Amino acid sequence: MGGAAVIEHMDGRSMKTFVTVMEEKSISKAALRLGYVQSTVTMHIHQLEQLLGKSLFRRLPRGVELTEAGKEVAPYAYRFLRLGESLQAKLTGLDEPKGPVRLRALESFCVSQLPKLLPTLFQQYPQIQLHLETGFQRDITQEVAGHRVDLGIVPRNPQMKNIEFVALLQDELVWIGTPELVHNIESKGWHACEQTPIIGFGGRCIYQTMAGQLLSEKGISNVQSLEFDSSEIIKQTVICGMGIALLPLTTVDAEIREGRLARLTAEKPIPLEHGLIYVKGKELSAPVQACKELLISFFDEELSRETG
Q: 164 and 280 in contact (C-beta within 8 Å)?
């Protein structure tokens, strides 16, 4: 079937069902989420497969997974749905931005920075429905590039042709530990703490990857690691003396000033530039555009206050 015919027969309900089944990896879970019976979900998928002439899902013993054709359809399905949301937002939010905004950022950034911004966002735009999720640099970039989220905040420019990057906040990665542990490392060298665990978010996190690379360059390998999905848990375990961590200074600055943590000043900090990413050239819906502009202006004002 030609492109014009596909557009002519495209059904928004089938596209939404396709995306939901893909996200849930299950027909039954998708039906529950959409409020349909399973036969309706199956019918929508079948209609879409007939229209496209390709099988989109492969059945597994438990659930389903995308076929190669399904993987190709996925980003277009998200764009199709976002276009509908954008049109609705334009029509219903001419006077005030209204509708969903999907934002994904690193957990450490969410905890340390977004609480300062969110009250302003909801006060200025009470009709915006913010869906905030956490992730890692690679995950966030892929989600934005795949049109699964509208905006992302990452600690480094992904340097991708189809991704726009707008710098928000200058930061740096620093080694932190208890004052006693940091003094031990600075006086005796890194080999004095070879048995000390590195505490972080795990191998998917850019901070943990850098920590492993830095220690490897110093000839320290097979380092034990402790992994948590919360920056607050990481900080508390470090404060208890259970290990050391490589974290953004903005995340641990308060604890350092209070003396509960110490910074390893013998090591040169690693520059970070937290920035906002979105698909280049994509027309953003009214609420997404408002959220984007507010994020940029908020951190511009923060920088002006700090430097002024």
A: yes
Q: Is the dihedral of CA 11, 12, 14, 18 positive or negative?
A: positive
Q: Label residue 157 exposed, middle or buried (CB < 10 Å: 0-12, 13-18, 19+).
A: middle
With contact defined as beta carbons under 8 Å apart, do 228 and 234 qualify?
yes
Lookup: tokens for 227: 């992994």
Name the pTM for this structure. Answer: 0.71
d(CA 45, CA 54): 11
- Where are the alpha helices (H) located in the chain, listed in sequence order? 3-9, 12-24, 27-34, 38-52, 68-92, 107-112, 114-124, 137-145, 179-188, 206-217, 231-239, 249-258, 286-307
Give the β-pairing of 245-248 and 128-134. unpaired
Q: Is 294 exposed, middle or buried (0-12, 13-18, 19+ CB in 10 A)?
A: middle
Which residue, chain included where needed, has tokens 């036969």?
39
CA angle 128/154/276 to nearest 5° reads 50
When pLDDT is averaged across residues 96-112 and rounded to a whole number, the result is 90
Those residues with Cβ within 8 angstroms of residue 250's Cβ, 6 or more apart along the chain or in another chain: 112, 113, 169, 171
Q: Are 199 and 207 in contact (CB under 8 A)?
A: no
DSSP letters spanning 251-306: HHHHHHHHTSSEE-TTSPPEEEEEEEEEETTPPPPHHHHHHHHHHHHHHHHHHHHH
Nearest residue to 294 via CA among 279, 283, 307, 284:
284
Query: What confidence tens digit (pLDDT) does each residue in 7-54 have?
Result: 566 778 888 899 999 999 999 999 999 999 999 999 999 989 888 889
